[in-house]
Structures are given as C-alpha cells and as structure tokens.
Amino acid sequence: MTIHDGRGGPHTPDRRAADSPIHQGIVPSYLLAKLAESERYAQAAEAARQTLIAPPPAQHRSQLRLSIGEDGSLVATVEAAPNRTISDAHSTEHLPGTVVRTEDQPPVADVAVNQAYDGLGATFQMLLDAFQRNSIDGNGLPLDASVHYGSGYDNAFWNGERMVFGDGDGEVFQGFTGSTTVIGHELGHGVIQYTAGLEYQGQPGALNESLADVFGALTEQHLLDQTAAEASWLIGAGIFTPAVHGIALRSMMHPGTAYDDPELGRDPQPADMSGYVKTADDNGGVHINSGIPNRAFALFAVELGGKAWETAGSVWYRALTGGLSATATFAQFAAATLREADAVDAATGDAARMAWASVGVIKVAGDARARR
User: Fold this and answer.
1) Per-residue pLDDT for the chain (372 aa), expressed as one digit of tens each?
2) pTM of the full predicted structure?
3) Does 185 qualify as catalytic in the annotation?
4) Cα–Cα distance, 195 to 202 (Å, whole number)
5) Which of 4, 23, 222, 287 is catalytic?
6) Residue 186 catalytic?
7) 3-class DSSP assignment, residue 144
C-alpha cells in the first residue's frame, strides 16, 4: 500500500508516518517564487502565485486487485505492456477529469493528450528494457495521467497514483507534456516510492530528486537511442518559452548553467560539495543540491561510454533497489553504487569512484583500485 506525501516525494507508510503535505513538482518552489515577483511577465507572475498557493491534490491509497483461479488459487496476471489512460481536467483542479484516450486507441486532436500518452509509453519501455521493471511498481501498474490541470498551472507532478500536467502560463512556461525528461522524472518518483521511499528532506530528498532526474534523462536517451556522449543531459528542455534566457530547468552535466534570466535569476545548483547549499527552503535544498549527485551520474556514464541506461543506469538502479535506507545521505548512496560498480568489473568501479570524487562526495587517494 502506498501514499503520497504531497511534496513530490512519495513513500511507503510502513517506513514512516506521513508528514505535513507541502506540494512540489518538476518546477522548484524557489523558481516559482522568483517568477511570482516578476514585473515583466505579469501573466506569468500571477500564474506562479496561483500555482504556489494551489492546494495539494487529494491523497489516495492504491488498491491491489487480485482474482481467484478456477482451482481456488490466488491469481495475479502481469503482462509486460503499458496500460495507459489519459484524462482531461479541463483547466480545473479536479482529478482525474474526463477520459480522452486509453491504451491502443489512435492519436486524438489534442497534442497534450498524445504527448502524455507517448511519454508514459517511453518511460515504461525504458524501465522494461533497461531494468526489466514492469511499470513503476514492477508489477504492471497502469499508467494514468491528467492533462490541462488548472488554469495557467506552472508545474507537472506525480501525485502517488497519476501524472498531472499543467499547461503553463504562456509567457515563461509552455505545456509540460512536451518534455520527455519531465515525464520520466515524475514517473521516476513513482519508482522511488515503490522502492527505497527516500525521505523528501535534505540529502535524502536531494537524492530523490536526482534519481528522478536520472530516470528522466535515461528515458529521453533511450527513446532517442543516444549514447551518453551524445546526450544533452538537460532536464526540462523546451518547457521555457523563447522569451526566457535558459535552455532547461537543470543541467545534469553542468549544474548551475541551465538558465540565467533577468527575471528568474540564475540556476542555483552547485556542481560539487564545495557549493552545497544549507537552507530551510526547498525542503532543505532538495532541488538545489540534487545537481551534485546528478553530475556524478553523468560523469560516470560518459566515462563508461555507450548507452547510459545499460551499465551506468543499472549500477544506480541496483543501488536504489538493493535495500537503500530511506534516510540515505550522498555518501551512503555513493557507497551503495560503488559496491554495485565493483561487482561489474574494476574499470566500472574506478569510474564510479572518480565520478563521486569529482563532485566531492568521496576522496580518492592514489590509484582508485586501492580504495576497494
């Protein structure tokens, strides 16, 4: 049984009690707060204010549906194929909205519906091909989404049971369904929900955000059949309008460089631990400090070469699903990835060590092999 904590950081209730809900999505609250003060983008500023004060969606509990076979045995049939349902919220904040497209139905006239459908499918296929994971829960969970949520809503989020997409304000943010990394990121929160259940605060929360970014980047790279060297390593590319001086919400390879805009300010992500931000905002810097483990993964994947969802992604995935604590720090997660990397071969272990050392999470003295 799973619930969502209302902050973009889903968890399993047997791990800890539910916290006070603080809604969070792909767009960090600090960026929305900055936009809310804009005099240049009046429409976007009002949309940002409304997005910030919008109540979190109602929490739901997942229900496990089982059947009884002819011989009286308990039967659960899992097929490795997506089961998608897209609904239209019609610019309201009432979920799920009206069903407008289901699995195996042809494209409809609404571009956002088709983009959401395709993005859910791309994420499902990446999880299956890369990790042999059947949907986000590993057991064929249906993938549901609602588009056209709210009026000028500047975010997209996973609410514990479905993807929800706003259309943006039109001045700063465009529709969120057009970014495969956004969809992969938010469904990645679902994978984390069903595995380690990382707390959405401080370093565990930053790991939660970083791992979701990894899933988002891998989904795009898998869809485009890109190597790690060919990939952009950008999260949320295309969701800004041309008026914004920026290319994406985050850069995994170069944290702190995704945008630098007179109204939005500069991307605040540090690239290594020397710039680690200690703050009470952003749930202890979960979006800000996620750039540190993000860069470690990107460096690791590029050093190994080839497709990032293969060896590099597999190491990170096994570290996440191999008994990781819900309160894991950067150093604890790094140690888990090193164990998994060493199990592959010496070169993979060395590449992982150098990646974590490059961002200041661990120290490597002399030959990396001596650290094992």
Assistant:
1) 233 333 333 333 333 323 333 345 778 777 888 888 888 888 888 887 877 776 555 443 333 444 556 665 544 444 578 999 999 999 999 999 999 999 999 999 999 999 999 999 999 999 999 999 999 999 999 999 999 999 999 999 999 889 999 999 999 999 899 999 999 999 999 999 999 999 999 999 999 999 999 999 999 999 999 999 999 999 999 999 999 999 999 999 999 999 999 999 999 999 999 999 999 999 999 999 999 999 999 999 999 999 999 999 999 999 999 999 999 999 999 999 999 999 999 999 999 999 999 999 999 865 444 344
2) 0.84
3) no
4) 19
5) 287
6) yes
7) strand
Residues 6+ apart with CB under 8 A from 339: 319
Instruction: State which H helix or E strand residue 283 sits in.
Output: helix 282-285
Q: Provide the β-strand partners of residue 351.
A: none
Give residue 68's Cα distance to chain centre: 36
We find that the CATH architecture of domain 29-371 is Orthogonal Bundle (1.10)
Residue from 186, 199, 209, 263 carrying the catalytic annotation: 186
